[in-house]
Amino acid sequence: MAERIYPGDSPPSSGEHSNPKPAPPSSDKPIPQPGTYVVQIPKDQVYHIPPPENARRYAHLSKRKSSRSTCCRCCCCLLTTILSLLLAAAIAAAVIYFVLKPEAPNYSVESVAIKGFNLTSPSPLSPEFDVTVRADNGNDKIGIYYEKGSSVNVYYQDVNLSNGALPVFYQPTNNVTLFKTALKGSGIELTAASLRSISNDQNKGTVPFTLKLRAPVKIKAGSVKTWKITVKVTCKITVDKLTAASKIVSKDCDYGVDLW
């Protein structure tokens, strides 16, 4: 019988089987070979899971940040409130100033009578000063209450010679008040240099003293009365002699207040 011959086929060679070995199945993806590989993943697709100890630390830090932010908010609220109160107080003070037009009272020493200075005796001195102070309140709408707790002191150089207090009284608006206060000292010992100095000053007719006055007062405007304010007056006075008939040669007074 004749053999079949197919077009394009070569005749089988001798010794080969008639059924050929089937080819391996084709695949779109290559089969990886055993070994080590580097896998590249896009950065936005990487998810990091911290270890437990780092997670606890992160939670602790997050809690601290939350506490700090709350504290900062409280501080900001407190600061805003304080600034608002200060602004309101400043506005109120400005309104009061323009409505009342306050003026500082004027103080001066009108006369001084001196006793108890025996500069020829070595025994301690007991000086006495009868001082007349003039207080001028020129305000139209403000009165002044002079309260308890005042003090008046007379110094020669740095030595406190005598002390006393002002009377308690009320000074109305547009008023001038003259009040006398008796100042006394006892057991005052001056050094030999101070005795020579005050004796020389008396011989020259110019004995300098410093009078310091401190008085707690309350300001009255209409029906409103303020808290206690301390009036401070310091007067530099010079007298011609250390007797009851002494006269003031010169005087210069400074005035100030302590609001609290």
What does this structure look like?
Its main location: membrane. It comes from Gossypium harknessii. This protein is an alpha+beta fold. The chain has a domain at 106-258: Immunoglobulin-like, CATH 2.60.40. The chain has two helices and eleven strands. The strands form two sheets. Strands 3, 4, 5, 6, 8, 9, 10 and 11 form an eight-stranded antiparallel beta sheet that branches. The longest helix is centred in the N-terminal third of the chain and has 49 residues, at 52-100.
Features:
alpha+beta; 3-stranded antiparallel sheet; 34% strand; elongated
Brief summary of the model shown:
Helix content is 24%, strand content 34%.
Unreliable stretches, pLDDT < 50, 5 or more residues?
A: 1-18
The number of helical elements comes to: 2
- Biggest pleated-sheet summary: 8 strands, antiparallel
Question: What is the string of SSEs from the N terminus onward?
Answer: HEEEEEEEHEEEE
Radius of gyration: 51 Å
Query: What structural class is derived from the secondary structure elements?
Result: alpha+beta
The helical percent reads 10-25%
Give the overall shape.
Answer: elongated
Q: What percentage of the residues does DSSP assign to strands (E)?
A: 25-35%
What would the average pLDDT be, to the nearest integer?
81
Q: Under CATH, the topology of the domain at 106-258 is which?
A: Immunoglobulin-like
The total strand number stands at: 11
Q: Could you give the distance between the termini?
A: 140 Å
CATH architecture tag of the domain at 106-258? Sandwich
CATH class of the domain at 106-258 reads: Mainly Beta
Membrane topology: Single-pass membrane protein
Pfam families: LEA_2 (PF03168)
Subcellular location: Membrane
Region (Disordered): 1-35
